[in-house]
Design a protein that fits this description.
One of its GO terms (biological process) is DNA recombination. This is Actin-related protein 8. Plays an important role in the functional organization of mitotic chromosomes. Exhibits low basal ATPase activity, and unable to polymerize. Its main location: nucleus. The chain is an alpha+beta fold and about 290 residues long. Helix content is about 35%, strand content about 10%. The protein contains 11 helices and 6 strands. It has a two-stranded antiparallel sheet. The chain has a two-stranded antiparallel sheet with strand order 3-4. A two-stranded parallel sheet has the order 5-6. About 15% of the residues have low confidence.
Length: about 290
């Protein structure tokens, strides 16, 4: 998705300046002022319908080599409207046109029998046997001792032929946060995996550091999840292991970069353009 916390903070800034923002020298091109608006977003904004009406807030502007200035402003609905722009994306248009990017399928390679298309649409059939059934165990032993007549029978197709699984969006259409989650989980190959995905959802980034945002998202998803995929628990995690959501993704990258084999995992642009998805067979650190 082509938007994030920066766009939400810009929307908040736009609304603040429409209601006589006291810090007149604020400039979106100065990093310290950008950090100031981000802190105001995290300190003042919320998603709590029980908190309404104007409230008086104060903040400090401390620039190097200058005196500390204290400002007071009256805030109202802008503190709840700006974080809700993650769910009602029309408000984000004030920061410019947005788009939703969907990864296109890689074309089949006739010279590679195990190309990306093969890996995507096929998988190994997992046969399960009842350990308490002696006959099943005997038949399983016979099957293991005899060669398979047709090895292609071990391959099953996960997706129907002619169904690409891609979602076409109208020009200028931007998915909201809840719609993007639903679309992503709906792309999972089986019902059991979809139930697991719906039971625990991890949201990271500085934009989620708003009081009540996780409960709002949980209620939005609970109303849209298909009945067959509903679970007893729907958990929205925003700070795993008490880590700052804004640095969670960087924490994982920092740990991964310390591995001795990290230098072997890099995929440069030329390699990706040449080999596409199938290069992950050689470089991906996890089995997929």
């Amino acid at each position: 998705m082509d938007y994030g916390a920066g766009d939400v903070c810009q929307a908040l800034s736009w609304m603040f300046h429409k209601s006589a923002f006291p810090y007149k020298n604020w400039n979106e091109n100065i990093p310290r002022d950008v950090f100031l608006m981000r802190n105001l977003y995290q300190d003042f904004c919320h998603v709590n319908l029980d908190v309404c009406g104007p409230q008086e807030k104060t903040f400090l502007v401390d620039h190097p080599g200058d005196i500390i200035n204290k400002y007071t402003l009256q805030v109202g609905d802008e503190c709840i409207i700006s974080p809700l722009s993650l769910f009602y994306t029309d408000l984000l248009k004030i920061t410019g046109p947005k788009m939703t990017k969907i990864q296109n399928r890689q074309l089949s390679d006739a010279e590679d029998p195990f190309d990306a298309e093969f890996l995507r649409e096929t998988g190994r059939k997992r046969e399960t046997a009842d350990p308490g059934n002696n006959e099943s165990q005997q038949l399983e032993g016979l099957n293991e001792s005899q060669p398979t007549a047709n090895p292609d029978e071990d391959i099953v197709v996960d997706t129907l032929e002619g169904v690409s699984g891609e979602v076409a969006l109208a020009p200028g259409q931007v998915l909201s946060l809840d719609a993007a989650i639903l679309q992503s989980i709906d792309s999972c190959p089986n019902e059991e995996l979809k139930r697991k995905m719906y039971s625990s959802i991890l949201i990271i980034g500085g934009g989620v550091k708003v009081h009540g945002l996780n409960l709002w998202l949980q209620n939005k998803l609970a109303l849209q999840i298909p009945y067959i995929y509903k679970t007893e628990q729907l958990e929205i995690v925003t700070s795993p292991k008490d880590i700052d959501p804004a640095s969670t993704v960087w924490k994982g990258a920092a740990v991964m970069s310390c591995l001795e084999s990290a230098s072997e995992l890099w995929i440069n642009q030329n390699e990706w353009n040449r080999y596409g998805l199938k290069i992950l067979r050689e470089r991906a650190p996890f089995i997929w």
